# Entry
Amino acid sequence: MIAALSLSACGSRDDKKSGDGGSGGGSATTVTIGIDAPLTGDLSAIGLGIRNSVELAVKKANEANEVPGVKFQIKALDDTGKPGPGQQNATQLVGDTSVIGVVGPLNSSVAQSMQQIFADANLVEISPANTGVALSQGEKWASGEKTRPFKTYFRTATTDAVQGPFAAQYLAKDAKKSKVFLIDDQKTYGAGLAATFKAEYTKQGGTIVGEEHVNPDDRDFAAIVTKVRASGAEAVYYGGEYPAAGPLSLQLKDAGVNIPLMGGDGMQSKDFIKLNPKSAGDLATAVGGAVEQLPTAAKFIADYKAAGYKDAYETYGGYSYDSGWAIVQAVKAVVAANNGKLPANPRAAVVDAVQKVSFDGVTGKVSFDEFGDTTNKQLTVYAVKDGKWDVEKTGTFSG
# Structure
């Protein structure tokens, strides 16, 4: 890490003309956008969509010669959805002098293990998926005391401060569910989501008829199913991700508890439906508007299909592309401010430039507030219908 802080140069010289849509003519400086995501394991469906979408952004930047004199490449590392590997990946990315920015991770708990490492090296990190509020606003955010812990941390996904309450308002007002059983997986993301949901749901007059905590690796929910059935709940809210949410919902339905299970964006994956053939009627929120319905996303969807990726872009594809493109635009600004050349020690300058980026992206307007959070506060409620996620409602949370 110390070596990375005293970079003599960032990137390598490529004296050949780029034949793959690169910077073209003469020499180009090659820089790397790192990617950290679960590329294997239970959450790999989402992780691979993140990787592919950032790779696509890099390809398009090179083809368009978006930053004259600079060619981009990716370096994707697998965190398996766990903090330990994520921390090791952060150290590896910091130590690679060509890495000028990082997209990821998926999990808020993984981000916690990486933030300090990136901050110490002035290496920008943009997550397309983290929703844990404390990552950007500090541990005391809920009391109104908001302090940004790391100026190197940004995200294109909105936070649980609005996602949990948005779901609560939907269940209370739109779905007319007055009794909810609350379950979370005890991870940073899941527990935080459940907490913000609970606060808003009770504020709306709803009753939490039971609360339970599970482990992310649990797949046998017999005891909880019994408690939910006895509680008289009209819905279950689950703070966690699809690998456990799918079996939980299926076991509820198999036991005759035919009520909707609702979760957050970590549940809104095609793999949730694969894991649960009885998922019809289940609900999930996702950050932003539905990509398939955004005019701004049409080209991304077409380009992704044309690229031939065998993995779907999934929930965070558009946000991953926009995260990668934000780094590209920051590099472009740094180069423009330095007489058309990348400075020898560009990482800190890139951090400052990301703070100022503003462009029309796949997911809409991309810019960041004083905490590094996205200024795009839209959310969408999806319901499983006919074996796929259909849009039920898109809007913004009104507190």
User: Anything to note?
Assistant: The CA atoms of residues 11 and 98 lie 4 Å apart. Residues 160-287+379-396 form a domain with the Rossmann fold fold (CATH 3.40.50.2300). The chain has a mean pLDDT of 92.
